[in-house]
Design a protein that fits this description.
The chain contains no helices and 6 strands. By secondary structure, it is mainly beta.
């Protein structure tokens, strides 16, 4: 008997960062599956959730395509969240400690703090 896990990654192997979840936005749309040329294409409803995270080094917008049977992630806006990058995949940990594979939509760097100017004699 075969046994396997659908977990996207072992949470212990991911170098986690923390940030503040500033916003969650969902976009509803459709995707085409199959071949348009032979007429076998079908459109499937899809919802994409976007998570805006304010971290020390940048503001990240991470996305997750949600199937129609998939439940929303348990997250609270204005709370601390954990996210990480392993190889070329991003991960987001929800409030229940579950790890979800997400994609990077945008990353906006923050300006570095200016060096304080010494007082004039």
């Amino acid at each position: 008997m075969w046994s396997f896990s659908l977990s996207p990654a072992n949470a212990d192997d991911i170098p986690w960062k923390t940030g503040t979840l500033k916003n969650v936005n969902t976009v509803h749309g459709t995707r085409t599956h199959g071949s348009v040329n032979n007429g076998a294409a079908t459109e499937v409803a899809v919802t994409t959730a976007y998570f805006t995270i304010d971290a020390d080094d940048a503001v990240y917008v991470l996305g997750k395509h949600m199937g129609k049977r998939e439940k929303p992630l348990h997250l609270t806006v204005n709370s601390t969240v954990k996210f990480g990058l392993k190889k070329d995949k991003y991960y987001l940990m929800d409030s229940d400690g579950k790890t979800h594979e997400v994609f990077l939509e945008t990353k906006t760097g923050k300006p570095k703090a200016a060096e304080p100017t010494p007082p004039k004699p």
